[in-house]
Amino acid sequence: MDAELRFHVEAYAADLTLRGMPREAAMRKARVEFGGMERAKEQCREARGIRFAETLAQDLRYAVRMLGKNRGMTVGVILAIALGIGVNTGIFTLLNAVALRPLAVRDARRVVSVYQTFRGSSARNVNGAASLFSYAEYLDYRDHNHVFTGLLANKAFFSASLDGEQPRRVEGQLISCNYFDVLNIRPVIGRGLTESDCSAPGTAPVVVLSDGFWHGAFNADPNMVGKVITLNRVQLTVVGIAPTEFRGTEPVAADFWAPVSMQPVLDASSGNSLADDNLSWLVLMGRLDGRTSLARVRADLGVIAGRIDQHHPGRTTTLAVNVASFFGESEMRGYLVGAGAIVLAAVSLVLLIVCANVANLLLARASGRQKEIAVRLALGAGRGRLIRQLLTESLLLALIGGVLGSVAAFWSFEALVRLLLAHVPAGVPTIALSVRPDLRVLAYALVLTVTTGIIFGLAPALQASKPELNLALKEEGAGRHGYGSRSWLRSALVTAQVSVCLILLLTAGLLGRGLREAQTIDPGFATKDVSVLTLDLDQQNYDGAKATAFQRELIEKIGALPGVDAVAQASVVPLSLNSNGSGVRIGGGERIQVRFNKISTEYFEILGIPIVGGRNFSETELRGAAKVAIVTEATARRLWPYENALGKAFQFQDGAQTYSLMQVVGIVKDARTSSLGADDDYFFYFPASPEDQLKTALLTHGRAPLATAAKGIRETVRGIDSRVMADVRPLDVNLENYRLPSRIVTVLFSVLGLLALLLASIGIYGVVAYIVSQRTREIGIRMTLGASASEIVRLVLRGSMRPAILGMLIGVGCCAGVSRIFSSLLFGVSPFDPITFVGVPIFLLVVALLASYLPARRATRVDPTVALKYE
Question: In whole angstroms, how large is the CA radius of gyration of the chain?
């Protein structure tokens, strides 16, 4: 470029020489008219579009040199950023693995899940979630859509009993026979399912095993294909082994896949679900061709949904179509994404404090570079160019910290998940969860890193790029400039730090109070020395009469075991996260949704729930379809206020539109059997009849140690039927299941709160120390004129505590606005608990005072003579 530009100048000079101008004068005239050579080069480079790349390279080289000169500050900033970004990236990785990552199949983004929601008055039978489909609906959508290359159906979370010397529970899926074809999965041994396997209900007893199940239960027998296994007392022939990496399409890793047409045989207790056209029980997934959009899919399936709605007057169906993931069901997905967003917001607050600390540090560093920046401006550098240079340094810091934090997060969270999955208690299904980073996680980490660099770097860059040139060039007024024009920004950053810190501390305080309440709360029933026995009679092809005889013999033999005081039946175990719900009407009024349990007479005695009015169920009522009920005190007050509920009649909904007339014969004290957080508004107890024996659990009370009692109970079950599985656990476990989420969330927010407190304290200390250093000369003058040490301390504290107190006010207001989100984990503690909302701000105020007092106290020890000569 230099040679070319000189050629143009010399050519023009030669032309002038030919016209008679002397050579020296011609060269001078050519240079004057051409202009500055370097300026022309810059214009050419900008026209070629490479100027930005060149200046960026210059900025990066300069940034590296500047950061290398301040290694201590650089290392501290990078570690702080790595901590903030690493925690955020790790939490997002978990959220992505649970709710956002597509299924682990080929061309996963072309596989979509389909769910439905209903509006209107049409009743619906549900087995799983209301958003699922019936078998008839599946066939309709499969045969009449124009957007899928294939549409599959599967019954998720299907548990079965594997027969053997020690019966064991296995998890699987009942699938349509195009399941593996739609997902593009090829078994490594044998075959998948064919259409002939689903041609008629119960006629194709075949099964495909997972690789893990094949290795774990059958020692990877190479001749497994063609052999017979027994699930729920049904013999099935193994036809294939799935690939190692494929574990199903649900969060629980599948051990087997059987044809959906085998449901009436494998799940006999649920009846023939294939024939119920109004039953929600199947998940639908389809594979798109390469040209079909989700909008077109929704439109095409909407036509089919409208046609189906015509057979259900008053009903309107809305379909949700999204890329398939483990938790694709709308309600569950919304819950997980909502919970993940709350945790992500909490860790983002810690990152915000990190950004405020780094911004304050860069502001202090910029004060030391005022002369450098002033010289650049005086030599003609534009403000935008300076801002870009300073932002380059900030982004370089953020990039290094982001890479370190993300790598640490990927490694640590993957190791943590492996550790947790390896220590899952016996009997808990294996979770098919992969936290390996994908493009979405990497993009999130990159965006977070760049955003972080801009957040903590922009404000210092804007402030540093407009110094007072005369004062800066004379090296005067650095203190005045640093303290005056930037003090508002430092105060704002301190305010933000304190408010964010207080939000996390208040949340941790509320959750801690809730956890303490959960540890001491009285659920209204006794759990000590009570064991729960659950059976799988419904999976063993027992009918009502056979189950009744089995239960009667079992209760009699368990009651005779040493140390057992009493045995009771219940269709719902207290605090088991399960519930029975239906509707009642009083005097022909509106339908009221209620919860209920079906129990035997010993239930109240074992759990220590007193009967405060009326009587218990009689043995006669337990043997027949008695139309009697016992209600809680709260139910009696709400349904029959100012009246005696005993003897009152009500209508109970025992079918889709069928109501039976029933009578209240007893009233019991309120108990938190459905949820530990609050009493049920309406709760009924009904006698456990012979028709309920397939689904009831046994509660036993005794003085023997749990291990001894559990062994005796299991041996008793095996003595009656060795193929029935018996799961024995203490009732206390259910209580801990409610406390565990509260404990986890409390620990998380406590750690985040303490981390935020540490960072905020460091930030306040750093700001006050810097301000004191900038005002050293002023402090020396005040002390020379007679100011006492206490007056100097008060002067500094007034300036430093003003933004801290403002931050506390903002933090209290924000926490009061969001505290209701955690109400389900507070177990009766108010979201506006006065102890927390008063104690935590006072604690933070003390910490802020201490962080401000230390540098203020040190300022009073400065020799006035030295201070007067400062700067």
Answer: 37
d(C-alpha 690, C-alpha 693), whole Å: 6
Helix (H) or strand (E) holding 706: helix 706-720
Cα distances from 176 to residues 171, 197, 235, 257, in angstroms, run 17, 9, 19, 10
Give the whole-angstrom CA distance, residue 693 versus residue 554: 12
What is the per-residue pLDDT across 251-276, written as a single tens digit (0 to 9) for each?
A: 888 999 999 999 998 887 778 899 98
Distance CA 517, CA 515 (A): 5
Distance CA 214, CA 255 (A): 8
Query: In angstroms, what CA-CA distances link 748 with 187, 347, 501, 754?
Result: 42, 9, 14, 10
Environment class of residue 602 by beta-carbon count within 10 Å: exposed (0-12), middle (13-18) or buried (19+)? Answer: buried
Amino acid at 847: V
Tens of pLDDT, residue by residue over 816-831, are 887 777 776 777 788 8
Structure tokens belonging to residue 394: 């900030």
Over residues 159-211, the pLDDT tens digits come to 888 887 778 889 999 999 999 999 999 999 999 999 889 888 888 899 999 99
CB atoms within 10 A of CB 840: 25
d(C-alpha 581, C-alpha 592), whole Å:
10
Sign of CA dihedral 761, 766, 768, 769: positive
Query: Is 579 strand, coil or helix?
Result: coil
Question: How many whole angstroms separate alpha carbon 274 and alpha carbon 260?
Answer: 8
CA distance 444 to 695: 47
Q: From CA 776, how far away is CA 256, in angstroms rounded?
A: 76
Q: Residue 201 is encoded by which pair of tokens?
A: 């209900």
Nearest in space to 406 (alpha carbons), one of 86, 97, 91, 84: 86
Q: What sign for the dihedral angle of Cα 276, 280, 282, 284?
A: positive
- Cβ atoms of 185 and 192 within 8 Å: the answer is yes
Enumerate the β-bridge partners of residue 431: 252
Largest CA distance in the chain: 134
Residue type, 653: Q
Lookup: tokens for 854: 């230390």
Q: Which amino acid is at 200?
A: A
Residues 492 and 463: beta-carbon distance below 8 Å = no
